[in-house]
Design brief:
This protein has 3 domains: about 120 residues, ATPase, nucleotide binding domain (Nucleotidyltransferase, domain 5), CATH 3.30.420; about 190 residues, Nucleotidyltransferase, domain 5, CATH 3.30.420; about 200 residues, Orthogonal Bundle (Hypothetical protein af1432). The chain has 22 helices and 17 strands. The strands form 4 sheets. Strands 9-8-7-10-12-11 form a 6-stranded mixed sheet, with helices on both faces. The protein has a 5-stranded mixed sheet with strand order 4-3-2-5-6, sandwiched between helices. Strands 14-15-16-17 form a 4-stranded mixed sheet. Helix 18 crosses helix 20 and helix 20 packs across helix 22.
Length: about 525
């Protein structure tokens, strides 16, 4: 995993001389480490990661203390992380501890032991600091420059909320509503749906006092932490969608309730069989989702965006003194896609020409082909990136494009849309989508049809620049009863554009199939060209 660098919304606040930094988050459920290189221009590259799950917060509500066995496991994990950081040549190791250590009577004893046995020097965050780090991470990975947003981070011991307007924090709020804490308090034994109702009533009463509906109703909500990555994993599995990363997944609010209701009726053993749910979270996921559902009920957004980045990434950015740039909708996405294209050494004139022609075709034909307005941006990105596979090899470059795009870190694009972009780029040439192509066939029906529609437009646009000469200035399109007629307008007067006309005609078959009409590529002199 790598944080986005020059193409992402970062700027370097102070020259850090290209230092290697380790960031470690000691949470109530897990301990996570990132080792990263930070360049003077603000580029951040993750070089290693480590995770352990000692569950320091387990039993804390009942005893008020950290359990000795869990402390042993945590110290052992931190010792490994310290060794990794030093072997990797880190110039600085930043360590923070959150709710469990903060609330435990023997938290200071644990910290002394960590310092003595590992050489690490953790600092304990107050809840508002946790909320600020979670927001800093979200600001770097989502476009929060317009409108209001609520970033919620659910850990094992606490819930943090960051309320922001136009990317500027207005309030930071913390509650003792972590997934471990509430599981022990409300869902121990066979509590089931009744326990969930009591839990939600308890959370609802507290949130109502401090979260004004008038100001935050309809705000964009971003979820940070394992509760949300597991929620996204389960939601995508229910849709039959396979992705490399769940970051950016948007889950409709009603789906959160459906998943919570389903899990609440299951035993822990039954939850272990739920696709997309991590086994280590099966016993505490219901409490986490119940808290999330109450925040959503209060804010009433249409959907929730899951972040694959959290407090440790915020700590890394803070430690590296890299400040996220507040991005308006579309800005971070455009920078990220273009930056990825540039790293793949794409042929800019050809790609931008194909993008321009593809969008002209979309504007003329999209609505009649059944395209939604949002698909225009999907097509634009697929067109810009369709040839990035040249970075690997010309032979089969459309398939290389698919794999490169599928595994790219792209801001502002959810995993479902990223799959579609990769598929559209893959089908800009070569064989048309068919059932034996498993990656395409495994999409749901709407996804498969979207790929076919957009790939059909991209293929024709790419054909109109067959010689990579940008000979076509624009295209004129007429939808007739018997055919769709597409006539290119030459950039240079009297240019016959033979190669471009042949290229478009040769690649029009998929558009014919999608439209259910013949497609006629017409030369400026009125002659229909055969592919």
């Amino acid at each position: 995993m790598a944080l986005r660098a020059p193409d992402g919304p970062y700027r370097q606040a102070r020259d850090d001389a290209g230092r290697r930094i380790a960031a470690i988050d000691i949470g109530s459920n897990s301990i996570r480490q990132i080792v990263a290189d930070v360049s003077p221009d603000g580029q951040i590259r993750i070089v290693d990661e480590m995770k352990a799950a000692p569950r320091l917060g387990a039993g804390l509500s009942a005893t008020g203390q950290l359990d000795e066995r869990h402390m042993d496991e945590a110290v052992e994990a931190l010792s490994r992380m310290a060794t990794l950081a030093r072997q990797q040549g880190c110039k600085r190791i930043e360590v923070v501890a959150t709710s469990a250590v903060r609330d435990a009577r023997n938290g200071a004893t644990f910290l002394s032991r960590v310092r003595r046995e590992t050489g690490l020097r953790p600092r304990v965050l107050v809840g508002e600091e946790e909320a600020r780090l979670a927001f800093r991470s979200a600001l770097a990975h989502f476009e929060l420059g317009a409108g209001r947003s609520v970033v919620m981070d659910i850990g094992g011991g606490s819930l943090e909320l960051a309320l922001a307007a136009e990317g500027l924090v207005e309030r930071l709020i913390t509650f003792p509503f972590g997934a471990i804490r509430l599981t022990e308090q409300f869902l121990a034994g066979k509590a089931g749906p009744k326990g969930v109702r009591k839990l939600r009533k308890h959370v609802r009463a507290a949130i109502k006092k401090v979260l004004p509906v008038r100001d935050w109703r309809g705000a964009e909500v971003i979820g940070s932490g394992g509760t949300f990555t597991n929620l996204a994993g389960m939601y995508l599995a229910r849709q039959g969608i396979k992705v490399r990363s769940v970051h950016g997944t948007r889950i409709p609010r009603h789906e959160v309730e459906h998943i919570l209701e389903q899990l609440a009726t299951m035993t822990v053993q039954e939850r272990l069989q739920v696709p997309g749910l991590n086994a280590g979270r099966a016993d505490i996921i219901v409490a986490g989702l119940a808290v999330a559902a109450e925040v959503l009920d209060r804010v009433e957004p249409r959907e929730l965006a899951a972040s694959g980045f959290g407090i440790r990434e915020g700590l890394l950015l803070e430690s590296a003194q890299v400040m996220p740039v507040i991005a308006d909708p579309g800005e971070a996405r455009a920078r990220s896609v273009l930056g990825f294209a540039e790293r793949c050494h794409y042929e800019a004139p050809h790609s931008k020409q194909v993008q321009q022609l593809a969008l002209q075709l979309f504007d003329a034909l999209g609505a009649r082909l059944g395209c939604a307005p949002a698909e225009r941006q999907t097509l634009a990105d697929a067109a810009l990136l369709h040839d990035v596979g040249y970075h690997i090899n010309y032979e089969g470059h459309h398939k290389h494009s698919y794999h490169l795009i599928l595994h790219a870190d792209l801001l502002g694009i959810g995993p479902e849309e990223q799959v579609v972009i990769a598929q559209v780029a893959r089908y800009h040439r070569g064989g048309e989508p068919k059932r034996k192509h498993l990656a395409w066939w495994e999409l749901d029906r709407d996804g498969r049809e979207k790929v076919r529609r957009l790939a059909a437009l991209l293929r024709v646009a790419d054909g109109f620049d067959r010689g990579h000469a940008s000979a076509v200035e624009r295209v004129k399109v007429r939808w007739l009863e018997r055919a769709i007629r597409i006539t290119p307008v030459p950039r240079r007067a009297n240019d016959p554009m033979r190669l471009e006309l042949w290229g478009a005609a040769r690649k029009a078959q998929l558009l014919e199939a999608v439209a259910g009409l013949p497609v006629e590529i017409v030369a400026p002199d009125g002659q229909v060209v055969q592919g």
